[in-house]
Write a structure and sequence with these properties.
The chain has 169 residues and is an alpha/beta fold. The chain has helices spanning 3-13, 69-84, 102-112, 125-129, 158-166, and strands at 38-40, 46-48, 58-64, 89-96, 118-121, 137-141, 147-152. The protein has one domain (31-162): Glutaredoxin (3-Layer(aba) Sandwich), CATH 3.40.30. It contains five helices and seven strands. Strands 5-4-3-6-7 form a five-stranded mixed beta sheet. Strands 1-2 form a two-stranded antiparallel sheet. Helix 3 links the parallel strand 4 (89-96) and strand 5 (118-121). The protein is globular, with a radius of gyration of 15 Å.
Length: 169
């Protein structure tokens, strides 16, 4: 078996490919307090991810890349969260520094105007802190800043997850 095929087989066996969008089992365990991570804003200034976690609101963090088709497929749901619960949900995209540049992320935001912050994970600190081994991982933090949901892939029902977490679903 070729090395690439072996890696894919090992990755599948690890459960990363199993039940994409199932809602749990990727990233951090439920109940884990949100870990700190040093990032940059899109102007290159240092920021802390926890500065974007607002107590009393759910915080939806997507590990994102411009080339990620699953991320693109999740975009309408992220927009729906912002529209439906603007006072109860904060959305943040963490742009991974794999296969893209800061300028490419800036262009994406300029072209698409998502209306929520994009942060640049230039050193991979957030990826490591949140155990986000791929793009399209979504972590939802509860109102106290603890992990309440994790999922991966385009099949996630983020609107349903937020409804349940807000007690309206």
């Amino acid at each position: 078996m070729a090395a690439g095929g072996l890696l894919l087989l090992l990755w599948a066996a690890s459960g990363v490919l199993a039940a994409p969008g199932a809602g749990q089992g990727v990233s951090l365990p439920l109940g884990t307090p949100a870990p700190p991570a040093a990032l940059q804003d899109l102007e290159g200034r240092p920021v802390q991810l926890l500065d974007y976690v607002q107590r009393g609101k759910l915080t939806v963090i997507e590990f994102w890349a411009s080339w990620c088709e699953n991320c693109e497929a999740l975009s309408p749901q992220l927009q729906a969260l912002r529209s439906r619960w603007p006072d109860q949900v904060q959305v943040v995209a963490v742009a991974v520094a794999v296969g893209q540049t800061l300028r490419r992320v800036q262009r994406h935001v300029e072209e698409h105007r998502p209306g929520y912050p994009f942060l640049w994970d230039v050193r991979g600190e957030a990826v490591r802190a949140y155990q986000a081994g791929t793009t399209s991982i979504v972590v939802i933090l509860d109102r106290e800043g603890k992990v309440a949901y994790t999922g991966v892939g385009r099949g996630q029902d983020l609107v349903g997850a937020v409804e349940r977490l807000l007690g309206s679903g």
